[in-house]
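Page 47, continued from p. 46.
Same chain as before, 351 aa.
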Amino acid sequence: MVAKTVLVTGGAGYIGSHTVLQLLLAGYKAVVVDNLDNSSEIAVHRVRDLAAQFGDNLSFHKVDLRDKAALEQIFASTKFDAVIHFAGLKAVGESVQKPLLYFNNNLIGTITLLEVMAAHECKKLVFSSSATVYGWPKEVPCTEEFPLSAMNPYGRTKLIIEDICRDIYRAESDWKIILLRYFNPVGAHSSGNIGEDPRGIPNNLMPFVQQVAVGRRPALTVFGNDYNTVDGTGVRDYIHVVDLADGHIAAVRKLDDSDIGCEVYNLGTGKGTSVLEMVRAFEKASGKKIPLVMAGRRPGDAEIVYASTEKAERELKWKAKYGIDEMCRDQWNWASKNPFGYESQPQESTN
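Result:
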């Protein structure tokens, strides 16, 4: 049997790199396209090493998706069985300050990709969407049928891309598209060799906690401790990044079903965990005390958001295996081995 070849955009990023590794281990060939805007080529090299004898099935191109000529060249030289599309900017706060940057990068990059895919008769796509498309849901758990709304430009790009995908499928029914709505990816590969390495100040809870634990930041700011939750802090659905990566493998396999059109699946654990519960689990895993600073609620933050995962379990035959203890254990393993991420030392003190 000839190995299938999957193009992975944004494959040097946090979720992308873990997914590329799982693809290789599952016997696929992976071609990574990434502009390295918020990622590191070191991640690609480490994935190749972790994949051992399957590492030869990985190739990398430093290309921006908006560079249509470069993308055309890649498609002209390789026949792809499917595309997993991660590439995009993803900081909510930045998107509010720089909406045009987000629309230009995320929308034009995706449209260019879809045009090139169509021109080369590659019509199988797994798209990395987000639970942000639910806005602030009025009830939980979130099912795939919930009404959709975007609360910020980042979320709007995800929603618009979902709509583009639905419209393409309506126009041309030979497309097969799976939209995966992630909840809150955390953790790292158990080797500690690949993990999340955000540039600048982290936007998400766990990279921030990790930076406090290794001494890069003095304390964690908790936004809002007066919610109607178990301990007053916001509740989210945290999912181990390796479980999330495995969800993509399940989705790529599902694209072979004759009856797939344009389908959407939540990827989460179906359980909510509060900010303080997550911090306590990380303290236990790391043996480090995380100093906290309590602050007011952030405008627009929801109280409780978690997924209904029944559809993914039923149709993708996929279910998250790991709990918060494993997430924190693997996150700490990555952080303690790579306190400054993929750079071996802090940028400012290279002497």
